[in-house]
Amino acid sequence: MIATFRYEFRMQIRRPVLWIVYGLTFAVTVAGFGHTYLDLNLGGDEGRDPRPAMIASAILITALLPIVYGCLLADRLVRDRRLGMTDVLDTTPAGRTGRLAGKYLGACAATAVPLVLAYLGRAVAYAVTEGEPAALGWAAVILVTTVVPALLFVGALALAGPLLIPPLLFRVLFVVYWFWGSLIPATMMPTVSHSILSANSQYVAYGLLDFGHYREFPPNAILPPGGIVYGPWPGAALNFLRPEASPAVALLWIGVMIALAAAVLLLARLHTARTES
């Protein structure tokens, strides 16, 4: 597993397309949310506060960049089969489960590096310009509790999906899935957006980090109507998947993301064992 992790990480991190596509998508994000991204002042009358600033930065960074993350991972698991390397790898001491775990962790870690650098870079800039070194601590907390669980699930889905459909088709469907399941308001159509099944949910921000305490939100933020800060949307379908934000629900969301990632990887392992036996 460790050897596979190191190999996959080095191979993925050296891909020029990784940095090019991330750079272009990041430029689009900054162009679309430039004022909010540069300001990050959500404290209102309470002044600048690094906690809501880092939450707002994470929301902006994870709006579009996970699309790049998932699309770049879509060919990593099927690559060995396409190159005819499966039988060769089976002769090595490493088992298929260990290789799958190493490939998953290595490829996901490398593909997440540009996203993490973009987020931490904004945190460093905020800490320096605003004289708020606490922003670095809050950024680390938000990264671990909000960004990483989402990337674990998305990474597992992106690796396993192309086992069933061609990688190009999966990428198209993944982009559709991301907008449907993460960004579209729940009142527009039945969707898991803003639910405990959505990788882009903000349950940690509202349930654990009290983001709802700050009354000023990014100008482009889509908030539920009816005075609900984060929870059920009035008139929306699947509201049973949108409990009101609380610490318990935030921890539940983290658990759901990890459980979904583990389940997808298990299904991928069973699928490869059946098709390659």
List the defining traits of the structure above.
single chain; 277 residues
In short:
By secondary structure, this protein is mostly helical. The protein has one domain. It is 66% helix and 0% strand.
What overall geometry do the principal axes of the alpha carbons give? globular
- Encode the helix/strand succession as letters: HHHHHHHHHHH
Mean pLDDT: 85
Class from helix and strand fractions: mainly alpha
Please report the number of helical segments: 11
Oligomer, anyone? single chain
Q: Biggest β-sheet, characterized? A: none
* Amino-to-carboxy terminus distance: 21 Å
Number of structural units classed as domains: 1
Quantity of strands, as a count: 0
Low-confidence stretches: 43-47
Roughly how many Å is the radius of gyration? 19 Å
Describe this structure in words.
There is one protein chain. With 277 residues, the chain is mainly alpha-helical. It has one domain. 66% of the residues lie in helices and 0% in strands. It has eleven helices and no strands. The longest helix is centred in the middle third of the chain and has 35 residues. The chain is globular. The two termini are 21 Å apart. About 2% of the residues have low confidence.
